[in-house]
Amino acid sequence: APSIDITAVRARFPVLHQQVNGYPLVYFDNAATTQKPQQVIDALTRYYNDYNANIHRGIHTLAEHATADFEATRKAVQAFIHAREAEEIIFTSGTTGGINLVAQTYGRTFLKKGDEVIISTMEHHSNIVPWQLVCEQTGAVLKVIPITTSGELILDEYKKLLSDKTRLVSVVYASNALGTVNPVNTVIRLAHEAGAKVLIDAAQAVVHCPVDVQEMDCDFLVFSGHKLYGPTGMGILYGKRELLEAMPPYQGGGEMISEVTFARTTFNELPYKFEAGTPNIGDVIAMKRALEFVSNLGKPAIAAHEAQLLERITAGLQDIPGIRIIGTAPHKIGVVSFVVEGLHHFDLGMMLDAKGIAIRTGHHCTQPLMDFLGIEGTNRASFAVYNTPEEVDYFLDTVGQIVRKRKK
Ligand code: PMP
């Protein structure tokens, strides 16, 4: 992949150019949320300055402009994940919103007592709790694919879990806590052979890994705009048309109807059936700029850059005594989790913040995974395209000094 001019990329992110506690900001919390390039911020401001209007209902000029831009993002998302049709792209509030939508419409309608839903040990809470809720409501049973201590799905165990009772498999593409990239194509193929549908949580993967929903043949795929250099409060649910058609609406309200009488309501067509009420118009519009930012740099080039940073930080951490890396799968996104012997992650997180370094500490919304690993939480550094080898070296120096000082 062609290499990226990181200095030029950094210049497009206003937030990066600041001091935190007297040190230049090193932002290594990208798995939580990425920073936003100027063109995303500008698109938001332009919408509110120039053509703020509600969409789909006005015939006036501003409403037409806003509607056109809103729908242009839908087409851009369709191209970005290579969906067959723009109508298969539903705007949600985020990954969490998308999973809950599928659980409460598809799940609630098609799951019966004794049916099984399969997730994995490394799921984010947002891919656990919605399934627990719908299992409670329907009498379906939740099954969990075990993982190795290095943080990889045990596919043989997965195969044993699959049966004619399996209705749905919902698995993360790339783990936010460990960085593991799962063999989702195999997961999907095996589920289909068992007659089950598959949802892929691409919250992390969508920005680092190839996502072609037709090639993957997943039934549903969800992600959030804010981890993809876009705004918070907007996300995407992709679903195959025939499944979305078969699902009842999620929420009732304006936009999602065709005709309402007090006796009976008919529902709007896809995608509007699932977009009740005034959506997050400004953020959806700005998301198009984020997709362009990623596409223009090229996902393979971004991934290659992040892989170099991952290799550098992993090697450096391994050289510091008392540090154990959590998640050692051979195929990882730019996420490194680690624990330090005798040093609580909250303490290290605070000491690093005092030096201008932002990492995430804690359970990363994966408590069952932490339980399996027998730890309470980790320190996690996660990369985006604007991070540099110099930042990694500064991080390693700082962590090394903290750890060595404590040992004396
Ligand atoms: N799944 C994964 C793998 C995630 O990393 C996250 C965010 N940390 C989510 C789901 C939830 O995303 P959101 O909070 O944007 O809905």
Derived from helix and strand composition plus strand pairing, the structural class reads alpha/beta
Radius of gyration: 22 Å
Distance between the termini: 45 Å
Helix percentage range: 40-55%
Q: Which cofactors or ions or other ligands sit in this model?
A: 4'-deoxy-4'-aminopyridoxal-5'-phosphate
Mean pLDDT: 97
Spatial strand sequence of the major β-sheet: 4-10-9-8-7-5-6
Main pleated sheet: 7 strands, mixed
> Shape from CA axes?
globular
Number of DSSP helical runs: 15
**Which spans have pLDDT < 50 for at least 5 consecutive residues?**
none
Number of strands: 17
Strand content: 15-25%
Description:
The chain is α/β, with parallel strands linked by helices and 408 residues long. The chain has 15 helices and 17 strands. The protein has helices spanning 6-11, 38-51, 61-81, 95-110, 129-138, 155-161, 184-193, 205-208, 213-216, 241-246, 281-297, 299-318, 345-353, 367-373, 389-407, and strands at residues 19-20, 23-24, 26-27, 89-92, 116-120, 141-145, 166-172, 197-201, 220-224, 235-239, 257-260, 265-267, 323-326, 335-340, 357-358, 360-362, 378-382. The strands form five sheets. It has a seven-stranded mixed sheet with strand order 4-10-9-8-7-5-6, sandwiched between helices. The longest helix is centred in the first third of the chain and has 21 residues, at 61-81. The radius of gyration is 22 Å and the shape is globular. It starts with 5 loop residues before the first helix and ends with a helix. The protein binds 4'-deoxy-4'-aminopyridoxal-5'-phosphate (PMP). Residues 94-96, 124, 126-127, 172, 176, 201, 203-204, 224, 365 line the site of 4'-deoxy-4'-aminopyridoxal-5'-phosphate (PMP). This is Cysteine desulfurase.
